[in-house]
Design goal:
By secondary structure, the protein is mainly α. It has helices spanning 2-16, 21-99. Helices cover 94% and strands 0% of the residues.
Length: 100
């Protein structure tokens, strides 16, 4: 964008030194086109930045949802494992009590 502004400034400077009206008109038209191109590039950059921000937010939300689901599943698996361990401990205690 800085380069476009420098080009625009250069074109404007050259147009001030132009000898004929036709040359000045061409230089002004070129400067106008350069300004329009710069504005268009700025708008495109802003639109792309907004799209990237929206995509990042959506990806972050999705990752948070998946992390929460994984945490829930890990908690369930842990609870299930604790239940199995308790049942095995009870069975072992019962078996030990029967042998005495």
């Amino acid at each position: 964008m800085r380069i476009a502004l420098l080009i625009s400034a250069s074109i404007a400077s050259l147009s001030l030194m132009a000898c004929s009206q036709k040359t000045e008109d061409h230089a002004a038209a070129a400067a106008d086109q350069a300004g329009a191109a710069t504005a268009s590039a700025a708008q495109d950059t802003a639109a792309n930045a907004n799209t990237a921000a929206a995509n990042t937010a959506a990806a972050t939300d999705k990752a948070a949802d998946r992390t929460a689901a994984a945490a829930d599943q890990a908690a369930k698996n842990t609870s299930d494992a604790v239940g199995v361990a308790e049942r095995k401990a009870d069975a072992a205690a019962d078996a030990a009590a029967k042998t005495h």
